[in-house]
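fyi for ur records
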Amino acid sequence: MYMRSSLSDRQAGIRPLKKIKNLRMKVNILIIFCLALGFASCANNKNSDAETPAAEAGKVYTPVQLNETIMALENSLEEPMLKAEAEIKVRSSNANMAGVAQSAKAMEDSIQLRLDAAKNLSPVGVGGEDFKVVSVRYFEFLKSIYTTYREMAEAKDDNIKMEKAKQMESLMNSQADVMSTLQQSQQKYATDNGFVY
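which gave:
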């Protein structure tokens, strides 16, 4: 695998950091794809963490409102993700792994706010529970990317770095399925409840 870090790689002059940069490029592609989905699925909504759409437990929503709330949670990640990716790029190019871990952790925390909000939503309409579950899994998937980023940056042992690189590769391979599942769930929820998103 291209992420393998062995003694022969080091002897050949191939640095593990360069391999990590290649992996980060794939993550950047994933982030861009996620942002594009957000732009396509809802009006642009730029919120800081302090303005994250609150999901009040027990609040009654219409199906349209539930959909819009979930999409607002997703769209509110735009700025934090762009900031994190820029920081990670600069810090990794300077071999500042502690800084990479710090940026990834900040993004994990930012996604966790949205994840908690999504979990607190009251599902409504036909298929509301299914749509909520798929949406929660989507936020968990996004968080897992940054968790893996952080764990790779914090790893001191080459074997752990390799393990995390394989984990990141697995995440990248499952990206299309996660996105497709979210889109299909959202489309079904909209159709079943008589609205177009």
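The radius of gyration is 18 Å. thats all i got for now
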